[in-house]
Specification:
By secondary structure, the protein is α/β, with parallel strands linked by helices. The chain contains 13 helices and 11 strands. A hairpin with a 2-residue loop joins strand 1 and strand 2 (18-21).
């Protein structure tokens, strides 16, 4: 058996057109740490997941303080519930606006302050993810990832639509680039290509598609380096590396398939959205992507984006991310789960049991996709634990009941061990209207960024 040789945490497998990062390996730990317990100082990665239009709260909220019996929407979390905390009674008072509800909710969610009531977007400061990215993001090749599924939307009630399409803001007037295309994201992380900001205010001209590199797989390009590296690793590291490479290969195959698909899922999901189809010449229509590089179904698109995010966390390509299941006020239809009407329309349920049932199906689909990612993270060994032990991920919405548009009693949970900061398997009931920024303050600390205040926070929200 080979004697493990120490290697740098920043080791890359390089070849022309490719730079493949490595997962955490025992050989990357300082010799003293390996001798002690085989564990290096592993950073905590943080992410903020957002669902639009609130949720159907009766199907979301657990009964007791322990997660013994999960409510219908959360059932898919059963395999990982020991790494989940459901948090009740948080509020985002800063998301309450004038006239409109969805725009100031999306725009203010991660800001902790009100966004400007204007058709020219302006928020109070950088969002919490970008505050972290400025301090710890530079330790990784990508300071942060800002991911989504659906394109932007126009605003209403005197608000910019930019607020609904972006929860991550680099500055008062600049949202972070929202990445929707899995192929472009994968290429940027593993082929060194940069992603440009799409302009959803006008129809994109179709460009002649350029053929991909003759080497379809970055793994093919670095095959010799992989063999050389494996010869110098111990048995457990060889297993971890093999599992990682198999996961990377799986993602590559799915990215390649999506790139060959002619149409994505957006036309079917968003084609009936009133924002996409109207006759008012004064208002822009929703621009639907042509599908190149995007899987043909919504669920496949989400799964592929989250698998790439998991690889990015596993390889320390980034330590900070945001993810939007759709834009705030989303009119997406989920025909694959028998919800043919607009999600936004369903959220205005007016106590209609059929709309309650449709909302629960939508909420459950989102949670199932999220739970799949968590289970994948739980399967990835990292140090003496798993990747899931070393992440802290919030999942929630800035609206509770879409019919009332209330910004208190928010649906919120935290997943992952947070590097030891989070004790899972619980339902934590806070005092009513506890600022959600208390959680943002705690997540900053988990990432290694100490602040005494963020937004309207009153104290760190300890979940240990």
């Amino acid at each position: 058996m080979p004697t493990p040789r120490p290697i740098s945490r920043r080791t890359l497998l390089r070849a022309s057109g490719a730079a493949v990062a490595l997962p955490f390996l025992e050989a990357m730990a300082p010799r003293t740490a390996r001798a002690a317990d085989g564990e290096a100082s592993i950073p905590t990665r943080i992410a903020f997941f957002y669902v639009p239009n609130g949720v159907h709260m009766p199907a979301w909220r657990p009964e007791g303080e322990e997660l013994a019996e999960l409510p219908p929407t959360l059932k898919s979390l059963e395999p990982v519930k020991d790494r989940v905390v459901v948090v009740s009674n948080t509020a985002a008072a800063h998301c309450k606006g004038r006239g409109g509800s969805h725009e100031p909710t999306g725009g203010g969610y991660l800001i902790g302050d009100k966004c400007k009531h204007s058709e020219v977007p302006e928020v109070a400061n950088a969002s919490v993810d970008q505050v972290a990215a400025r301090e710890v993001g530079l330790d990784s090749p990508a300071p942060s990832l800002t991911l989504g599924i659906d394109p932007g939307s126009r605003g209403d009630h005197g608000y910019s639509g930019t607020y609904m399409s972006n929860i991550s803001w680099r500055s008062r007037s600049t949202p972070s680039t929202l990445e929707l295309n899995p192929k472009q994201l994968y290429d940027r992380l593993f082929r060194g290509q940069q992603v440009s900001q799409p302009d959803w205010s006008k129809r994109q001209e179709k460009k002649q598609q350029q053929p991909d590199s003759p080497a379809a797989s970055v793994l093919d390009l670095v095959r010799d380096q992989v063999k050389d590296l494996q010869r110098g690793l111990g048995y457990s590291d060889q297993q971890r590396l093999q599992e990682y490479l198999e996961g990377l290969r799986n993602v590559e195959r799915r990215v390649a398939q999506a790139n060959s698909d002619g149409e994505g899922h957006h036309a079917a999901g968003l084609g009936d959205d009133p924002l996409a189809n109207h006759d008012d010449p004064r208002l822009p229509k929703l621009i639907i992507p042509d599908g190149r590089g995007i899987p043909p179904t919504y669920s496949d698109h989400v799964n592929l984006m989250l698998d790439i995010l998991t690889l990015a966390f596993q390889t320390d390509q980034t330590r900070i991310a945001t993810f939007m299941f759709s834009y705030e006020k989303s009119g997406r239809a989920y025909k694959e789960i028998d919800v043919s009407g607009s999600h936004h329309g369903m959220s205005h349920h007016q106590q209609d049991p059929e709309k309650h049932a449709a909302l629960t199906r939508i909420n459950t689909l989102h949670m199932e996709l999220f739970a799949r990612m968590l289970q994948r993270m739980a399967d990835i060994r990292e140090g003496s634990g798993t990747l899931l032990d070393h992440v802290m991920i919030s999942y929630g919405s800035g609206i509770s009941d879409g019919n009332r548009h209330n910004n208190d009693d928010l649906p919120l949970l935290v997943a992952g061990g947070g590097g030891g900061r989070v004790r899972g398997g619980r339902h934590v009931k806070l005092e009513q209207k506890t600022p959600i920024c208390n959680l943002w303050l705690e997540m900053l600390a988990a990432a290694g960024v100490e602040r005494s205040q963020f937004g309207d926070s009153t104290a760190k929200l300890s979940l240990s």
